Amino acid sequence: MTPFFVMSLLFGLTFSQTASLCAPSEYIIHVEKRECAYCLAINTTICAGFCMTRDSNGKKLLLKSALSQNVCTYKEMLYQTALIPGCPHHTIPYYSYPVAVSCKCGKCNTDYSDCVHEKVRTNYCTKPQK
């Protein structure tokens, strides 16, 4: 192999690993309750990014544990609570949400993550924002 080819290969591997990192990313959640007059836009961080996965074309030949696909998920998180404005006294006006502190590539844990992406979900307000 030529030195140019080796250097190009090393650069490509290094860049692809850097570009595919799973890391906290800024995200806006829109929260509203039926009883409350306003919608609240919350700035938080979520885990987002690309994780290397294995091709499962040989699934008949491999063990089931070898077929698991890694996703970008929480390594460390904390919860914060926000106050939704315009709520009547009989309604609990608080909303708790996760904040990603650090992320990792691993199996999706359904205890604290939604592991299925649904296309019909939207993230917007139907009420005025405050």
UniProtKB/TrEMBL annotation:
> What keywords are assigned to this protein?
Disulfide bond, Glycoprotein, Hormone, Secreted, Signal
Which Gene Ontology molecular-function terms are recorded?
A: hormone activity
Q: Which InterPro entries match?
A: Cystine-knot_cytokine, Glyco_hormone_CN, Gonadotropin_bsu, Gonadotropin_bsu_CS
Q: Name one GO cellular component term.
A: extracellular space
Where does the UniProt annotation locate this protein? Secreted
Q: Which Gene Ontology terms describe the biological processes this protein takes part in?
A: G protein-coupled receptor signaling pathway
Q: Which residues form the Glycoprotein hormone subunit beta domain?
A: 21-125
Which Pfam families does the UniProt record give?
Answer: Cys_knot
In the UniProt record, the signal sequence range is 1-16
**Family, per the entry?**
Belongs to the glycoprotein hormones subunit beta family.
Q: How does it assemble?
A: Heterodimer of a common alpha chain and a unique beta chain which confers biological specificity to thyrotropin, lutropin, follitropin and gonadotropin.
Protein name per Swiss-Prot or TrEMBL: Thyrotropin subunit beta
